[in-house]
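Build the 3D complex.
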Amino acid sequence: MTATVGNFYSGTSDQVRNQLRSRFYRTLTGSTASTELAGELPDSPSLSMLPPRNGEQETPLLMLVYYGTHEGGLEGNPEIKAKLSQPGLWQHSEPDASVWRGVFSPLYHPKVLFSEQIEVRTADLPRWKPRITIDRRTLTRGDDE
Amino acid sequence: MSDTWYEEVEAATKLMQGDLILNCPLVAWKAVPPQLSGSGETELLRGMTEAIQADTVVMTQACDLEQGKVQNVVLCPHLSLTKYYEAWKAEMERKSQNPTQRAWRSHCDDIREGYVWNLAILNAGSTGRLSTEHRIVDFHDIFTVPRDFLESLLQQREQPRLRLLPPYREHLSQAFARFFMRVGLPSPVERAWEK
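Done.
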């Protein structure tokens, strides 16, 4: 079973993200359910990112996804059911890994060796010159003439 | 399918693959070999950079531009067939070859047929206000320019530009890919049928 138990916006601070798991789940699910949930949670819940939906300019959502195996412990819990049935919680479907295939553009921060501001007047710049390659094919043809 | 190779777009139009950017300022590496002794590598690199200008065509994939996936735009230089002929003739003479008209025609045919990996030829064309003669694109040199910079520059110039239309745009892109992915065999297939 895959259950979405909460989401972070990408602006969420590290302090919030890195808080103790039990505390985090308590925040999400309420004090009564948290005790029960915290005991059954895996060590490493997964964080996935969802892109903005069509037409939205929002920052992507970070979704905390719990790939749990203890379905029995969650099923039938009215508080969990109430949480999962909230329309706002399910407005984003389960993240699909294929969304992130193709081109992914993370921000790189390479070490800068040097940097300088240059003033460019295009008209004064030297023009690019091609490097012509005379290949065997051309030479062979030349010999034929 | 259109038999027109180009459309004309206004200066403020967002960049797209196949846009011809004339007189584009670029940061390039100097052609002179680096002097490795003495100064450190950072100073060496600094001394090897230079700003140049060239007529260029946007090679970045259209979808990457459309979806804002890239901050820098990949450009390849091109020049008019007239200018290219001058360079070709000079190189032939430098190599003690006779730059005959037949040799020139054969060379252009080879480029047209895709036998010269690093070169592609764009057709001549004209729109209402703009026109170009045939252009030779050279994939040997590849430049990148910040997209924001280039779009600002084009807006500042307030000049319309030519844009390659599909499928000519994709044909150029395919030639670029073929140049990059080519594999030379140390031992080619023998021509058994010629024996």
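The first strand of chain B starts at residue 6 and ends at 9.
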